[in-house]
Amino acid sequence: MSRNMDLYKDCAHIKRSRPKEVIDEALNKKIAEDYRTLPTFEKTSFEIMHIKHYSLENNELLRCRWIQYKRHIEERVFAPFAFYDIRDLHFYNAAIRFMPSVSTFRLEHRMKLKPGPGVDQKGQMPIPQELLMKRGISQKDQPKNKINKLTAKKGMADLRRRK
């Protein structure tokens, strides 16, 4: 947090201001055009007040910090997101602590075999023999002396005629 404050030290002389709660005729007319229910006036006036307050045109502190952010964008260190898991919270010394190093659910896949061919640091990996094998009998391996049912019926009919 202090590192971020160092980026914005040029804006330290500007004090944070509160939004101005001003309701004028233009605002009343705008809200009256869209008026359907009672809470709409409160909600719309609150939203418009904050939209005006947090715009770069009206808010001097926000404008100064935006300029400083753009000026120091090259110096920022971008780190990957760290998504914490609920399983990393442990009860230790009568308190709940965040200790990801103690968690046992993390899996390591470094030494696991991968199915199928691939490429490693030495080049193309060979295809395992198990992946080349097929289950059952292929069309080529089936015996060719099997007779189709239709041809068998025709052959029996021809035998009966000859007798």
Topology of helices and strands:
Elements: H1 2-7, H2 25-33, H3 39-53, H4 60-71, E1 89-92, E2 95-98, E3 119-120, E4 123-124, H5 129-132, H6 149-162
Antiparallel strand pairs: 1-2, 3-4
Would you give an account of this structure?
- This protein has 163 residues and is mostly helical.
- It has a domain at 2-75.
- It is 37% helix and 7% strand.
- It has 6 helices and 4 strands, in the order ααααββββαα.
- It has a two-stranded antiparallel sheet. A two-stranded antiparallel sheet has the order 3-4.
- Helix 2 packs across helix 3 (39-53).
- The longest helix has 15 residues, at 39-53.
- The chain is elongated and about 115 Å long.
Poorly predicted runs of 5 or more residues:
none
Mean model confidence by pLDDT: 76
Work out the radius of gyration.
Answer: 39 Å
How are helices and strands ordered from N to C?
HHHHEEEEHH
Largest sheet: 2 strands, antiparallel
Secondary structure: helix percent: 25-40%
Based on secondary structure, the structural category is mainly alpha
- For the biggest β-sheet, the strand order reads 1-2
Distance between the termini: 106 Å
What oligomeric state is this? single chain
Tally the beta strands: 4
